[in-house]
Amino acid sequence: MNRSKSMCKIRRLFSSVFVKLLLVCLAAWLLITVAVSALFIVHRLLAGVPYNPLVEHYLEYLLPDIAGQPEEAARLAARLGIGIDYRNSEVHWSKGRQEPPKRLHFFPAPNNDMIAYAFRHDIMFIRYQHPTGTYLFTLPKNQEPKDWLQSHLHLLALIIIAVIFTGAYFLIRRILAPLATLHDATRKIAQGDLGHAVQVSGNGELAKLADSFNDMVRRLREMIAAKEQLLRDVSHELRSPLTRIKVLLEMVEPRERAEQIASDIRELEELITGILETARDVHNLDRLKMEEVDLRELVAEVIDRQGIRAQEVELAGPEGSVRVRLDRHLFTRVIDNLLVNALTHGQPADGPVRVRVAEENGSVLLAVTDSGPGIAEQDLPHLMEPFYRADKSRSREKSGFGLGLSLCRTIVEAHGGELVLTSRPGQGAEALVRLPLKTKE
After folding, report:
1. What is the tens place of the pLDDT at every residue in 27-83?
2. What contacts 383, CB < 8 A, 6 or more positions away?
3. Residues 40 and 125 in one domain
């Protein structure tokens, strides 16, 4: 589990625009460094080692004096500050400076197969192939003392690169700062703070994006205000005439016809109440009141509210609590609707309604299963559509208005989950709610 969380954090880190820009800058710096270094190396290889015929002439003059005389070679090495190494199949001696490296890449001298040159840092190596053996002369490229800048050139280059990269880091952070502001504003608005506005200065693309964002929030605020006003107006306009009709019914004769009209009015009132409550709950989805809830305990409370019908329900699940973050009020509506549907439409039943709460594969599951007649195949895909009823011949008292499952799906999806209905005719039906363990706030 911890490894999975770490991988998620790494993926989120590398999906950041800031990190991507930083990596692009780093990659560009590396490519430029490699390209320039490669050009210098190629140039060095193509150019070879500077050839000086005076050195060749001096070696030919010098070798007779030291051939077979290590002591003379030692005095000469000490006087000139060089190293002289000699070896053949029988003898090996080294005088003067420290022994040369074992692996050197030599460049042959023009017009002389006996002499070859090599460089290692600031040291020049001259190899002379004498008939008696091989001489290797080690000469400092520049024996004069260097100043600090020359001796620490590589360190200075690294410091300059580090300063440039640090400057690029802070510059990118400053450029992308408005994105962080927009991200915070989005979170606040998602939590219902529609009065929040983004303050971004300047005339660049991000400033224009902030202005568009503020304009979007303003229009959204106006639309929600208009929607709320419409709900209030509809509630008033529909309930007022119904109240007057109910008063007038008291004077209608015969009473049987009045009772029939009163029944129709009650049905109309229930429909209006259902629509308004559904609209109010959907509106509340814009500002969910998230809290940590024991889902098993919440389901048990809803079952107890069914009164005597609670005896027809069987609750299964782990002994301990199943914790999940959700809006307690809205999710109670989901559990109640699914349970009432199973108790009502699952009759006649071969067994109790089974409610299962579980935690599986990083999700919290709530399954409500009945053992009734099931749902016809052609009706199953449409059951969560508003006002859809599988059996058109059923009475309103039993089948309702077709708003419950539609509202349940909307509430579950607002919590980042999903609601799935499955059924086989004659084998009952199951409503499965799947919520992420870390429900979005």
Report:
1. 777 777 777 776 666 655 555 555 566 777 777 777 777 877 888 888 888 888 888
2. 375, 390, 405, 421
3. no
User: Which of 252, 285, 319 lies closest to 417, judged by CA?
Assistant: 285
**Contact present, 416 and 440 (Cβ < 8 Å):** yes
Q: Which of 228, 253, 283 is the last residue of a domain?
A: 283
Contact 312, 279 (CB under 8 A): no
Residue-level pLDDT at 17: 64
Quote the CA–CA distance of 8 and 2 in Å, as a whole number.
10
- In angstroms, the CA 379 to CA 62 distance is 107
Q: Give yes or no: residues 237 and 306 share one domain.
A: no
- 333/425 same-domain check: yes
Q: pTM (2 decimals)?
A: 0.45
Domain end call among 233, 258, 283: 283
Residue 299 sits in the same domain as residue 279: no
Q: In the predicted model, what is the mean pLDDT of residues 396-420?
A: 76
Domain span at residue 258 reads 205-283
